[in-house]
Amino acid sequence: MKKSILFLFLGLALSTISCQDKKSTKEELLPMGVSKIVAKETFNAGGYTYINGQNGVWLAVGQTNIELNKAYYYQGALEMRNFHSKELNRDFPLIYFLNSISNTPTSAPISKPKAMSAGKMEKQVNKKIEVQLDKKEGVTSIADVYKNHKELSGKEVTVYGKVAKFNKSIMGKNWIHIQDGSDFEGNYDLTITSQDVTSVGEIVELTGKITLNKDFGAGYSYAVIMEEAKLTLATK
To answer: Apex CA 223: angle with CA 176 and CA 212, to 5°?
Structure first.
């Protein structure tokens, strides 16, 4: 009788452990490419919601409501190292920007910021500056880049203008915004990626490839952008 009771208890114990193991295994199984974070800290700044997980990972997504100690799921994160937030005046050694974040691994995203066209984005980010430059032979104006963007897609062109904004070492690139005083339907600021270094206020000449509908994730989408540009001239 005692042996029967002992075996019964052992059976129940093993069954409980097995169920717990299955439950634990089930919780750890996520769809391919999906990651999980439990929010232990969150705040909003500059149109983004920043989330710090219990594993020390920082995420940023278009502003949305995040509850502390609750699990969230994401995929397609854009890694950014040594990111400086001007709004927070804070440096993040590593942060991941997201297109969306979800309550469950399989549900529709609870937040998905709208991608902005290059023109709309630049008008929001960079104000029009005063630029007066003499025309140069072999140079395409920013207005003509936007006006003839379809014909210029995939081609190398040279632009000449004043640096309105410069961001260094983001996603392995330097980001240059130039203006030359020209304007096509409100598009006056061209975004350029390069490995070369410049500074705000410099007059620069750059040659690079025009790319259309470039999506870097995290809601950053450019209708027109110049990539892999080489700096051929920089003066004050």
So the answer is: 90
